[in-house]
Prior knowledge:
Rossmann fold; about 200 residues; 10 strands; Class_I_gatase-like (chains A, B); homodimer; 7 helices; eight-stranded mixed sheet
Amino acid sequence: MEIAFLLFDNYETLDVFGPVEIFGRLTDLYTLKFYSLDGGIIENKHGVSVLTEKLETVSANPYLLLIPGGMGTRKEVDNPSLIGQIKEKAGASSYVLTVCTGSALLARSGLLDGRQATTNKRAFSWVESMGPNVNWDKKARWKVDDKYYTSSGVSAGMDMALGFLADRHGIEFARNVAFEIEYNWIEDKDNDSFIAE
Amino acid sequence: MEIAFLLFDNYETLDVFGPVEIFGRLTDLYTLKFYSLDGGIIENKHGVSVLTEKLETVSANPYLLLIPGGMGTRKEVDNPSLIGQIKEKAGASSYVLTVCTGSALLARSGLLDGRQATTNKRAFSWVESMGPNVNWDKKARWKVDDKYYTSSGVSAGMDMALGFLADRHGIEFARNVAFEIEYNWIEDKDNDSFIAE
Lengths: 197, 197
């Protein structure tokens, strides 16, 4: 089962590599791949240069598409090529996970309309404005609506990734992954201590 | 001030990119760079391909050298070229941070001899055997001895990176960085709930 991580310039480092660490522990279950609109090396402001493949080459029905946040989302919400491909690939995926302001990109595709979602508590108003027909939840650490998982800021993506594993494989399975990486998992998706004002 | 991250095949993803997220928030203070023994693309088992520069091109006196862990350390402890360069570059750095089994590589250089250190609680015996003259602490989340910071497994590297910021800039400075990434920081370096048997 392929897990596709979508990168773009100035993605947020941990939004991607927190979940990569978690799903990457389960290489017997998942194959991790990295994509961007045009493929090639993608950089961010932390100086991390990662090799990616073209997004259009992702398999027809990926198991999971993960969309990170980061300052790059401010630009990419106005990139119709990327939003169009997100709509197509997210629509075809069994599951879609967004971290932080990655939810703004998914919201722009229209796929979150009428759904429950959350996002970074420090960029809430901006993300809300990108998806006026989405039911945004200001309290959740992460939110699940059908196949769509949306998380709060940065490290909340790790909590959500573990929550996703718990939903698929049971809580003890997820707890064991958290234990292996010596991570203090926040298990409660409904309460975030970093709530929006 | 340059922060140099050392990569090698099969480094652990989060050991690197957790601290990258934390130090990367402070680009007015720090420049992040990525190195490997021979430079070029470095891959790990999670499929993350990162572009690096040659380790010998690191500045003469880097501010901070970070050495991650991961399964690759099992091979690299027997790579005299890498251990020799670690000895030289770590010796010249103002600070050296290791995450997880990265401490085994630093121990092999001899620079930890007679010092306090810790490591991954799930690989403790092996790391101990790589540094028989190191005073290994089985209880610490991370350990500080002079310029050497060594942390427990994977996500403990993030706690240590925040602890490093607290030591340099004060606890409120570090708490603010944790808040920005909505991270539930384990502030107490002396007690790890993932202790070794």
